[in-house]
Amino acid sequence: MCMSTFRSSKIILSYILRFFAVSYIARLEDGTVFEKKGYDGEQPLEFITDEEQVIAGLDRVAATMKKGEWAIVTINHEYGFGNVEAKRDLATVPSCAKLYYEVEMMDFIKEKVPWEMNNQEKIEAAGRKKEEGNLLFKNGKYELAKNIIRWLNALAADCVSEDGSFVDDEQKLVKSLRVSCWLNSAACCLKLKDYQGAIELCSKVLDCDCHNVKALYRRAQAYMEIADLILAELDIKKAMEADPQNREVKLLQKSLKQLQAESNKRDAKFYANMFARVTKDSSVATKKLKVEKSEEEKRREVAVAMETEKEVDSSAPPKDGVVVDSC
Fold first, then answer.
1. Can you tell me the distance from the alpha carbon of 237 to that of 119, in angstroms, rounded to the nearest whole number?
2. Which of 55, 161, 292, 304 would suit a FRET pair with 11, their CA atoms being 20 to 30 Å apart?
3. What is the DSSP letter of 326?
4. Are residues 185 and 209 in the same domain?
5. d(Cα 34, Cα 21) in Å, to the nearest integer?
6. DSSP codes, 262-283
7. pTM confidence score
């Protein structure tokens, strides 16, 4: 198995334990029971991991347990109900509460891993996961949707890496699935404000298909968010060339023009202010120089007047009219 396939397999393995049935008693720090499942004639709780059906702490614990295993677990509020008050079946959980769970793993269903599937099963599993990811995205669970898409991409990577097991039509389907995974993952990145991630994923698509309008559109969106308007304009231009009637691209082009106008306005204001400061500083310096020159001229005039007065004094006759020759 090559290294890329090994990495993909690790991602797939993290998603094969999906369906759990657990019994548990949940208590607060003072011993108050706020929830109980699988006891007193009640059925165990059944849930799918990584879909926010239970608190994160219980989700993580379940993924590590074996069938029939029993555990006492302490869960900090970050992995419990957080900093909000939560009303449960038997009591209200205060905000920032530490929780104590007694958990028993009653059962779980293990999904097949790709190397246990034939080609048709792999394609069917990919279709199911794709629908699951789309539903999560529509419900605003972008991080979970992104995780499902990572699983799908890893599955597709395994399929692509296999030697000759897929016929041409199946290979085309798998490659199309990879492109779809990259595009959907880019959409999740945009929602999660991971703009660099969106750019990288769209670039992967464009390496395969340089005219893919969705990839150009989403990469342009990401460029606009990081204020790289020149690259955004290039992508929008290519998208318009590929699909001149695309309404979404036209709307994005309109938004880009507004951003460019605002950017130009800011730039003009910035340079105007900078020019005004330079002009003001120059004017102040000129005035200062003029004042200094004026003062210097006055000093020179005074000095000249004093010299003239001395010369006049030295050439004037003595007051008594007697001139004394020195011997």
1. 40
2. 55
3. P
4. yes
5. 19
6. HHHHHHHHHHHHHHHHHHHHHH
7. 0.59
